[in-house]
Prior knowledge:
With 280 residues, the chain is α/β, with parallel strands linked by helices. The chain has helices at 3-9, 26-34, 62-65, 91-97, 110-123, 131-141, 161-171, 182-187, 189-199, 225-246, 263-271, and strands at 16-20, 39-40, 76-80, 102-107, 177-181. It is built from eleven helices and five strands; from the N terminus they run αβαβαβαβαααβαααα.
Amino acid sequence: xxxxxxxxNRRPRLNFVVAGAEKAGTTxxxxxxxxxxxxxxxxxxxxNFFDRPAxxxxxxxxxxxxxxxxxxxxxxxxxxxxxxxxxxxCFPRIHEYNPDMRIIAILxxxxxxxxxxxxFRRARLRDKRDFMTAVRVEIESGGDLSVARENKYRYMSxxxxxSQIKALRETFDEEQLLLIKFEEFxxxxxxxxxxxxxHIGATDGFPFEKTRRPNAWGYxxxxxxxxFEELLPYYEQDIAEVEQLTGWDCSDWRRYEKTAGTAAxxxxxxxxxxxxxxxx
Length: 280
């Protein structure tokens, strides 16, 4: 191994990851944790080390560690890649890398999460299909990429959280996991950020200032009631299982909200006038 790679490989391991879900406030959590004293998170979000080919044979960590060369000695190191959660096969990799890794996962209403993910890509011309065409093709084809390359976005299957929670618990001890309901995070951001700080071993005694809605975009399209009601049966059983696994009340995930367009708008409604929140 070249000298520089060897040096990078031997640098301190990461202590935590914000693992998802995509479009569920991970950018907000990323922004908050960057401000916590003693925590070092590199500027780029979504390093995708554990769920992409960069993992290789699991012996060369230099592609990951190169982002942390400026970290102060003894800092708590972490990153946020929201696609980890939808790729449970990467959990054993994370555990192999650091058996003591702390995991933070934020789970959002799966239908609103799917719509937000589609809206995000539609606005950037990554997916030119309308929302219902996109999700129907995914459901009917079982996500087959040969049917539609856009199936790689997994708008619907990424919101099947029960299996993801089970995979996390099969890989990590319960005390290593912090599962957060997105809607609760929006209502009580400061409480959850301080709890997340304690979870990763940092202090929770720091000044708190709300984010200025990072990664929030105003989309042209709105989720309609008939669309919501058509997709709800796809998730009914999974939502019930999430409630059993977490003890959460997810009745709001079964209820249509006319104003649901972006995570930021949901957050604004939840937190009240004059307060900002964010998508991720």
